[in-house]
Design goal:
Layout (H helix, E strand, L loop, with lengths): L44 H8 L16 H16 L63 E8 L18 H4 L7 E8 L26 E8 L4 H4 L7 H10 L2 E9 L6 E3 L10 E3 L4 E5 L18 E3 L4 E6 L5 E5 L17 H6 L31 E4 L9 E3 L7 E8 L4 E8 L2 E3 L1 E9 L6 H7 L6 E10 L9 E10 L10 H6 L1 H6 L6 E2 L1 E6 L6 E5 L20 E5 L6 E5 L5 E7 L8 E9 L9 E2 L13 E6 L5 E5 L9 E5 L10 E5 L5 E8 L4 E7 L26 E7 L2
Parallel strand pairs: 7-12
Antiparallel strand pairs: 1-33, 2-3, 3-4, 4-5, 4-6, 7-8, 9-10, 10-11, 11-12, 13-14, 14-16, 15-19, 16-17, 17-18, 18-25, 20-21, 21-24, 22-23, 24-25, 25-26, 27-28, 28-29, 29-30, 31-32, 32-33
Length: 736
Amino acid sequence: MTTTPTTPVSPISPISPTAADAPTARRSLPLVPVPSGTRHGSRSYATCFFRCGLACDHPEPNQTGHGHVQDEIVKAVARRSVLKGAATTSGALVLGGLTAGALGGAAAAAPAAPAAPSAKPMSGDLARAAFSPVGPNKRDAVTVPRGFDHSVVISWGDRVVAGAPRFDAYAQTPQAAKTQFGYNCDYVGVLPLPAKGKGKGKGGKGGTQYGYLARDFDQALLVVNHEYTDENLMFPTGVYTADQVKAIAMASHGMSVVQIKRAKVDGDWLPVSDLRRARYNRRLHIDTTFVVDGPAAGDERLRTTADPTGTKVLGTLNNCAGGTTPWGTVLSGEENFNQYFDAPDGLDERYTAQYARYGISGKGKGWNTVDPRFDLSAEPHEPHRFGWIVEVDPFDPDSAPRKHTMLGRFKHEGANVVIAENGRAVAYMGDDERGDYLYKFVSAGTFDDAGSERAKRRNLRLLSAGTLYVARLTGDGAEDGVSDGTGEWIPLCSDTESFVEGMSVADVLLFTRLAADKVAPTRMDRPEDVEPNLVNGKVYAALTNNSNRGTAALPTDEPNPVGSSMVRASLGAPLTQASGNRNGYVLEMTPGRGGHAGTTFTWDLMLVCGDPAAQETYFAGFDKSQVSPISCPDNVTFSDDGSLWISTDGNVLGSNDGVFRVPTTGPDRGKVEQFVTVPRGAEACGPLVTDRNRSLFFAVQHPGEADTATFEAPQSTWPHTDDFPRPSVVVAFRRA
């Protein structure tokens, strides 16, 4: 639709970075009323409302009685207490710290001292560089260690496609938004441009996976997700009608592909300014056609009035994390898609159980007044067309992106691919919901490492056929002394056969949560990013938190006592107890026989996150006095030495969120050091270490998102280019 803003109000004076701590802009009522109050962690009501539709305020969709990961964690805790002598060493993980009343006194009153800087010389190699960790803070700025720098690569509203207008917050239109960088950037992928031609296989001859991350390149494609919108921060009051706001917000979802080039400073990057030469640039938006592939394509439950074939979908929604494949494409996860659909005349009773398991209530964002396909009463199949893994070929801007039904349908955080020892592509995935599951997919075909266009075409079929699995974790007890537990991958279906009684292949793929419920996997605490480490062969999962642990819905008991966490109400405040798992974990999995393509693994609880002064925390046995506080791990990535880099979302220790470096092997294994803090109200997303470890890319999502924040009364003005905040992609690097 065409929108013409009414006469704009006069813009207010910019707030400088130094004055941003005390916003002086005039206040106005928000476009979308948002209740205020204490949230699950540091997140505001606004973030929870706009991002996931207050998912944590509703009962867990998973109401099965299956074992919870907390049960196995408790066994691991008890076992470590025996092996490490309980609390006698600073690195020990002890059972007592996980129950009420475990902490008190001076040890809980102040944050641990930051780790001392190493005597090693400063280096442009971020994986190996010594630095003084960034301390907890509440600045309205991106902060990096002394000797390092950062720059904004691209921000919301910047031009992406040739012919796009310059961004003007007072003259936004859906048409303009479809050509500009979208809102709330999340996943960040960087794919080097080949010197000649296009679309060359990114794996390289001989099967080297992701070898481009360590090589020199001067131009690349930046691929970014745009997860959700916050209308209160995007739109000046009184300038747009309600339907104009909705239409622009809809167009601001999706993905962007942007050609970038190396700046003069080593490690720094910027977009190609002449968009006529940026032939790969692309905006995927609410009206972009996506092709549905895999076994469920064409199923009757994917058919709608607009698409009677069930094979084409307009748009992609709530794209969170993702991954870059060895064949040079990007995978993107559709996460909290359930919140976009309204049912003014009630829900279709045929799908009562399915809607409930996916949190679809029929109370959405009101988009049905702009586009009737979001009217669930009229189009009951439309939500079944979201919740998939999307694959985009950024080297072919004319190609149709695909939604892979073979990878299952749930609240995908993302998907990350590794080539197994037998040549099959294995994708690891997490379902980001309290009490839901870890998944993986193993392809039927094998990876072609020839690096040719023909090889790439073959590789583009790898995610269309294979076997989908869900994980069950079991604690080993104290006897074996090897690992904290074992696990198995339970098959749900292949592309031709269902392994779940009473469900067809299409049933399993369309309603994967319901299929998984039937085979008794382990319920996890919000499994988000799940990524293989190509250096040590292990797999790491960020389990962000579960605020409901210990409530009536999820009571604690003797074998499952993890019902409280130590948190800080504000920066420098004493540690106090709060209900639930508030700080999260990092789970480390080691594939068993058959490697990544096999069906067994062992697991280790590498990190129990939180303040090192809290007794329940554990950092792979590393001295707790030498680590940075870390809370709510969200996304993970690796530098080429195998070190883990973690971004956080929802810090409950009084500080802004950030990015942390953690060695996974050697004497420094578990040494958590904070490298970045992001601005007030923001979360750190999509970290990526690339360019021979010289560049750390990350997204700053929803800066200034707070219950009382509006366009006229912002709580942040980062990146301080305007008098309102603009979510942006940032790159950090060693200062020249």
